[in-house]
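W.,

You were right to be curious about this one. When I first looked at the sequence I had no strong expectations either way, so I just let the prediction run and decided to look at it fresh. Below is the sequence, 197 residues in total, followed by the output.
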Amino acid sequence: PAELPYLLMGYKAPVVGQTEKDWEPYALMVLAGILDGGSSSRLSKNLVREQEIAASTDAQYDLYARHEELFLLDATPATGHSMKELEEALYAEIDKLKTDLISEPELARVKAQVVAQEIYKRDSISHQANEMGALETIGVGWRIQDKYADRIKAVTAAQVREVAKKYLIEATRTVAMLQPQAIQRGAPKASLSEEIR
């Protein structure tokens, strides 16, 4: 039972230490920022404000993981729009990134945002400790985080297009949709153990 439908799309994507071209995970981070890097990002601007197909959108990718990761897109359709419309609109945004080079001003803005987000996270000592431990655990070493900003700044528009074409493909995509059932008012809530089953 839920009030709103929900769409989740995941594309298999490599992480740091698992690619022949070591810039690819950083280009995927920039790609996630292009799609969902605040109110000026493409999903927010095009799908939420201009076309009004989505009530909310999100894109996520974690370049520091032990195994292959998912490049995730999720969204909730706006009132009066179907899940199919929303799904097709997301594919259209991805297709633009596969064919058109991002402009240099947009690329520069997104890279600055991606770097800033990481720097703000480092204000937390616990975040730094967790990240250092995770980087050691996955075998790339904690010092790689010192190269993060330079690696993001080095990403080119052509590299963004290349990773979109290579990794955001149907063959590696899984799509999940929540089609809500009616919520019965006054019905007792399921316990956590019931929800897990």
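Here's what jumped out at me. The longest strand covers residues 69-77. And, maybe more interesting for your project: The chain has a mean pLDDT of 90.

Coffee later to discuss?

I.
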